Structure formats: structure tokens, C-alpha cells
Amino acid sequence: MDLSIKIRNKILPNPVGVASGTFGYGEEYAPLTDLSALGAIYTKAVTVEPRPGNPLPRLVETTAGMINSIGLANVGTKRFLSEKIPFLNTLSCPVILNVAGSLEEDYAEVIRRVDDQEAIWGYEVNISCPNVKKGGLAFGTDPHQVERLTSSLRQLTEKPLIMKLTPNVTDITAIAKAAEQGGADALACINTVMGMSVDIHKKKPSIPAVTGGLSGPAIKPVGIAAVYRVSKAVSIPVIGLGGIMNGDDAVEYLLSGASAIQIGTANFVDPDTSSKVLAGIKAYMEGSGFSKISDFHGYF
Fold it and tell me: What's the family (predicted)?
């Protein structure tokens, strides 16, 4: 059974990664799960300068999910290189750096500063965050900006470049095609869905930012539909995420066109979800007579 997935010139050992923003920089989860068994760690977002993030509270639980408005709080590139890279250098699993910014040049500067680090397997470019006022979602909703940003970042690195797409658009395939045209090696879809919760007792929004990103089981059908549509529209690998809680959820994504998946909100419920999802994928492959990940594709 071959569980590997090729993206550009590199190989993910298996299709199960852990999503950015739900797994810190890996070290936080080291006592709780076997990091060496992961297909990839997609790190918490890194921006050029440190970001304090949005006002507290930043999380609220909702029916079948949660809303977050973290605001890309992170340590910045300088502290990332001094405080986080030493641990990441010890890992055997691929480490994919999630890159964010407010301006196109911010994305480029992060990659310039970290590209010589051997620990960094590749990049996941966050053009789809719904809880920051500048950058993120603004880039991800305009095909022309997506193509231009992807093309400019492509010139800075030979490492795999994964563009993370937002579902908060009319036609996600137009954004996907623009990223592919710009030189993306893979696409991750989806990021969180714009959502809002109201505290009826306080008679105001549950979080100070008012709106945020909805994740968890509630958005799984949205994610699967996006993966299906995007995988039909492009020729590069698609990485599916959104509401995956178990092996069966992951199989739905794989059958719908995903080449790999990411575990997000489920990490907060059970830090060892990734290993259980991988076991579920293997069991399904054995029962179906599949020998490689591409065997999932082409049924519909």
C-alpha cells in the first residue's frame, strides 16, 4: 500500500496532515500524539512582524463546530526562526509553513527570510483568512490578485507552494485556476466559512470581532463540494479540509478528488485524531482493494 503523495518535487509520506492554527508549531502536541506518523504539520501562520491578534474572547462554540477570530496572532519571523525552528529541525515529518500577510510584499518577505531553512518542506499561503481586516480574505477573493501573488512567490522558492482557498466566494474554481496559472503546486480547500454567533443574554455578538471563521463538522459538506469542484477544474493536487473528525470523513474527501487531507478542529477534541483518521483510511483501502491514493479518484 502506497500512501505517499507527490507535490512538486517532494513527497508527503501519507495523506493526513494537521491544519494550520489548530496544532501550534508542533511542539505543543508532541506529548499527545506521534508527530513522526503525520503526513505533514501545517504550522500556525507566520507573518513578518509579530501580531497580537484580535481582542479576547476569540473562540465560541457553535452547533457542530466553533467560530474563531484569532486574527493571525503569531510570534513573527524573527522569533519563529530563533524559537520554533530548533524544534522543527528535530522532526521527521514534513513541516509546511503557513504564510500570511497584510500586503503582497509581506508574504514575499516571510519566504525570503525562511527559505534557507531545511526544516521547511514547503509553504501553505494563507489567502483566505476571514478574521483579519487586511490581507487574507481580500487576496483570496480576486482571481487576478491570486494569480499575481502566486506568480511572485513562485519566483522566490523551489519548495512546494500550496495556496489555501476561501469558500467565501461565488466561484471557487475561478480562484483555483488563477492559483494554478500563477504556478501553485497544490491547493488547500477550504479555509473557514464566515460565521457569527450572538449571546442573547448579553444582547451582543459572542466575540468582540463580531464575525469569524466557522469550522468543524458543520462545514464538511461545503468543503467536500469545494474539493470536488476544484479537483475537476485543475490538474494539480487538492488538499481537503473542513470538518474531518474520523476516517470516514477523510474518505469522503478523497473520493471527491482530494489527494490529501488536513485535520483541524478535531485536534481540540482529541489530539490523536490524526492517527485514528490514518488508520481509518488504511482500513478502507484494504477493504476496497486500493493500493495507492489515486485509486480513490474517478468514481464520479
Answer: Belongs to the dihydroorotate dehydrogenase family. Type 1 subfamily.
Euclidean distance between CA atoms 28 and 23, whole angstroms: 7
Residue 235 assigned ligand-binding role:
no
The CATH T-level fold of domain 5-54+70-196+215-296 is: TIM Barrel (3.20.20)
pLDDT digits (tens, 9 = 90+) for 33-72: 999 999 999 999 999 999 999 999 999 999 999 999 999 9
C-alpha cell belonging to residue 178:
488563477
Among this protein's residues, is 129 annotated catalytic?
yes
Q: Is 126 annotated as a binding residue?
A: yes
Please tell me which residue in 60, 96, 129, 266 is annotated as part of the active site.
129
pLDDT in tens, 168-212: 999 999 999 999 999 999 999 999 999 999 999 999 999 999 999
Amino acid found at 131: N
Whether the model pTM is above 0.85: yes
Q: Is 243 within any annotated ligand binding site? A: yes
The single residue listed with the C-alpha cell 505517499 is 4
